[in-house]
Amino acid sequence: MGYKLEGSVAVVTGAGRGIGKAVALGLANKKVKVVIADLMLEEAEKVVKEIEQMGGEALAVRVDVSQDEDAKALADKILARFGRVDIVVNNAGICPITPLEDISSEEWDRVLAVNLKGAYLIIRAMLPSMKKQGWGRIVNIASVAGKMGAMVAGLHYTASKGGIIAMGKVLARHCAPYGITVNTVCPGPTATEMTVNWTEEEMARLTRNIPLGRYGAMEEIAAGVLYLVSEEAAWVTGECLDINGGLWMD
Ligand SMILES: NC(=O)c1ccc[n+]([C@@H]2O[C@H](COP(=O)([O-])OP(=O)(O)OC[C@H]3O[C@@H](n4cnc5c(N)ncnc54)[C@H](O)[C@@H]3O)[C@@H](O)[C@H]2O)c1
Prior knowledge:
Elements: E1 9-13, H1 18-29, E2 33-38, H2 41-53, E3 58-62, H3 68-82, E4 87-90, H4 105-133, E5 136-141, H5 145-148, H6 155-175, E6 180-187, H7 200-207, H8 218-228, E7 240-243
Parallel strand pairs: 1-2, 1-4, 2-3, 4-5, 5-6, 6-7
Helix pairs in contact: 1-8, 3-4, 4-6
């Protein structure tokens, strides 16, 4: 169908560490050129070095996904360097665990701006060039929280991830005529910097509800993303892929 993963160009937001980094390394391993877009430029540059050491090609860009001008500048930089963008992985996210009744209005707005609006702004900035070329792959990282309601993370986090899941369905219908698939990955609790400070009690609360009895590894989440951007997933769109050890089944 004219799509080949090797040699294509991907942008992964929040790829300076954690799940995003695992996705970026996985893509680079498949000879995809990867743009590491992160708020933390130094971390992004370290990932670029790692990819270059693997013999791959990558570019670090500092971006705050909640800012429209950053999203537009990111698209310009990618097109200037690579001339195209084929794969967009919206992974950047923040996860405060503030108790429900203590969330300030500012904190609510920030979580929604990064986790939900950010994904929209990045997609909107990348769509014109993807539409022109007539195909592409978009994967948004939501969370099991968006399906079952978080057991540790904040209410605003749950709301943002539920929004990502719903948005993915509309986007999938909108993008299909242009040969662009849009899918969502819903990770369960995964060992990253995001969860590293959770208390033993908080971790136990989750783990005892996970049939497979442990947290996920970031590479296990990346594997789902790699499938959804692959040639083999050409007929998969509007899907929400659960990778959660059985914590939530639907
Ligand atoms: N770790 C988990 O248990 C888990 C579970 C379900 C879903 N997720 C989701 O997976 C994604 C990645 O999570 P992680 O665990 O790797 O987190 P992480 O905190 O380790 O990494 C998040 C990355 O996003 C970047 N980032 C944060 N705000 C940004 C912004 N405004 N603009 C650009 N980059 C920004 C950070 O700098 C960081 O590099 C998130 O969307 C998260 O909600 C994580």
